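During the no-cost extension, the postdoctoral fellow (Dr. R.K.) reprocessed legacy sequence entries with the updated structure-token encoder. One reprocessed record is reproduced below for audit purposes.
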Amino acid sequence: MSRVPDDEELSGLPLQSEPRNRDENPAPHREMTTIVVTAAVIEREDRFLVTRRQKGVHLEGFWEFPGGKCDRGETHAACLTRELREELDVDVAIGEELFATTHAYPERRVELHFLRCELLGAPAPQMGQEMRWVRRDELGALRFPPADAELIRLLRGEQG
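Re-encoded structure tokens follow.
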């Protein structure tokens, strides 16, 4: 049977300054940042307006409904109005929220609000992004972010 060393025996031992392996000292848990995003669902003649994410940004090359991140304290409607002016140089009439979802990516969580919008002018991409009008049945052929998957199914009339 082994015995527990007394204080005198322990006092001569060096203190361990580093953990022996990573499991002994796990990294502190970090709260994942949640980003609130709004996106415009703009439909005209059974086609939806989509834009392509540029190089060097999160999810580059994916197609998306135009919109962007809300500033602190900004309403969804104000955010979407600002983002569409910045990105497409166009004003919109904001309608109802069609769908909202939260999606966790490895590096962030996105709270995404899709609002129906009507264009009050002609959109003109301001950041070099590609823009298209896509038929409902073409939505499934484009690569959208995972957070958009449920909305795409809804717009295509598919059951989840």
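The chain has one domain: 40-155. The domain at 40-155 is CATH 3.90.79.10 (Nucleoside Triphosphate Pyrophosphohydrolase). The remaining legacy entries will be reprocessed before the final report is submitted.
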